[in-house]
# Entry
Amino acid sequence: MSRNVCITAVDGQTGFVIAELLVTNPDFSKKVDSVTGLSLHPTASKCKELAKMGVKIVPHKPGKERDMVKTLKETGCDTLCLIPPTHKEKYDITVELVEAAKKANVENVCFISSAGCDLADPQKQPRLREFIELETLVLSAKGDAEISLGNSPVVIRAGFYAENLLLYAPQAQKEGILPLPIGPTHKFAPIALGDVAQVAAHVLSGKGQHGFDDKHRGQLMVLTGPMLAAGNELATAASQALSVDMNFENISEAEAKKVLHSQSHSDDSEKQYLLEYYSLVREGKTNYICTTAFVNVTGSHPMEPTDFFKVYAEEFLPEHPKKRQKMDGK
# Structure
């Protein structure tokens, strides 16, 4: 049984890491015949890097569903890893991809959604709530026997990426603080991007009689990190990992907007998504962990916050004075 995977938004972090795993990790590459990457920015550095690894990069040109159907057919994919792209028209582009996948007779679909979308208020957190509508669109194919896409679906609701904390590395280095607009008491459980990619790679390479492995097919998997943490507990984990004094500062949403504007190169829609997730934390709607799916799929334990901070120690640790002077050319 062949397995030809097409991954959308491979110029983004999630798509890149999943594609990289599928072609470089023998546990997955031996089960996959080909990997194609769709990208709105096919000349991006991540796309060039993936191309060197053997991923076929195909330009993603949204706007005409008929053309999108043709593009998917030309990739020869039987499996689609659908990641909504970083774009102001993310919703419309993703809807077009789902409809095109149906008409292109793609057999298996793994949709990367967002944890918390089911608790998001359409008025307060519209970007988060969009994921519920997109999940419904993907899963609705299950009720139509004439549509191949409904045969083997999986939805992965990925929690808050721990890597988003890197946005606050400048404050961590200079002031020893993690400034987050999450309130003083409520908690959340950041998950490492690599852990989400591991689960996706297992799903995409797994095979069963009806498409995906029967252990995965039809599953809605919610993924969070293993530690439920308030802001001060996250700072404590950073302090333990880095052997420095790190403190949490609860900042206002207005200040959070300024920080994201000055320190994040993400699309405005992604910044809005982050702000909405923070508001979900403040409302007490993220006080849970979901690691069962990760353990069942991978057989291992998701990365602890202390290990995350150790991996990115250079990003968070204060710069040595002599090193800073050298970098400043003094």
